[in-house]
Amino acid sequence: MHKQFAKTAVMLALTALSTAALAQNTLDTEPPGRVGRVSLAQGKVSISGDVGDTATDALVNWPVTTRNLITTEPNGRTEVRIGSTAIRVDGDSSLEVTELDDDSVRLRLHYGSASIRILSEDVLPEFELATPQGRVRMLRPGRLRVDAERVRDTSVVSVFEGEAQVDGGGASLTIRAGRSAELRDDDVRTLQARRDAFDDWALERDRLNDGARSAQYVTTEMTGYEELDRHGLWQDDVEYGPLWIPTVASSWVPYRDGRWTWVAPWGWTWIDNAPWGYAPFHYGRWVHVKNRWAWAPGSREHHGRRPVWSPALVGWVGGGSWSAD
Fold it and tell me: What is the pTM of this model?
């Protein structure tokens, strides 16, 4: 067995053991099966494992979960994907993930600007975003923007598509597309929603990912699915079903270009360097077919409403004629 493959196999085994140990230490409470992903980081963007923890640079494919704090410098922007839901954060902003699990997506914008797009009806009752002045929930799929403390002691919720419920300033309002609500501690007023360069950027990101062919093979609630069209091809296999083959050299092998990082509560987690390297390393399995590696996600029906996330794949499938160089 080649040293590189042996090292990978050992790390995969450690991943399984660390996850099992953590589960035992938490009285067998299973970690959530839904995890987000840093899908884009421009300029200076940092993420910490918990509020008050030392922050590190936010890398593409970094897992995002409960109690993470994402902060951008004035020149930074970032995007977080949770299945089909997109969360974009503008420069000079701080967004906390207060709860992200199988039942809830709760965020808190301490200051700055965040753009939210929700496509799935199922996500609507799970989602909430709070600011120092109030909170917002989406009533219909669509796109909205929240600004907090851009003006002192003020939050603004602008709805561009869909419909939202806004609570704050001593009132509860339904805000429809094209309108915004300005919240202060004891006052709320409605205005016409206005777009700027940040909103245009968010809209362009949506257009980039809309209509992904990969949605024919995997559910859109599989985080990272939107990258697959641009970086590989699909084909059907008699034995494994749908296969996705990355556009890489035929000698490429999984788990070579990236890093192992300890991410609570799962333990050792693989962070791949490729822009597409999220879904194929946290769902499904890698198989060796016709002298190259392909990703087998399983049938779309098998995924159900939402597939379960794993810190790394721990199974290898293939013949005895290959080796990892």
Answer: 0.89
